[in-house]
Design a protein that fits this description.
36 residues, 1 helix, 0% strand
């Protein structure tokens, strides 16, 4: 187990990666990238 700061950093990195994946899924779902 790391200290609290390490745990927070890991949680933030995981959340950031998950959020980016989610946003990409939403963009694909709504076809917001059709302008490419």
């Amino acid at each position: 187990m790391g200290n609290a700061v390490d745990l927070l950093n890991d949680d933030y990195s995981y959340f950031k990666d998950t959020a980016l994946d989610f946003l990409e899924d939403v963009i694909d779902h709504f076809g917001l990238d059709k302008s490419n």
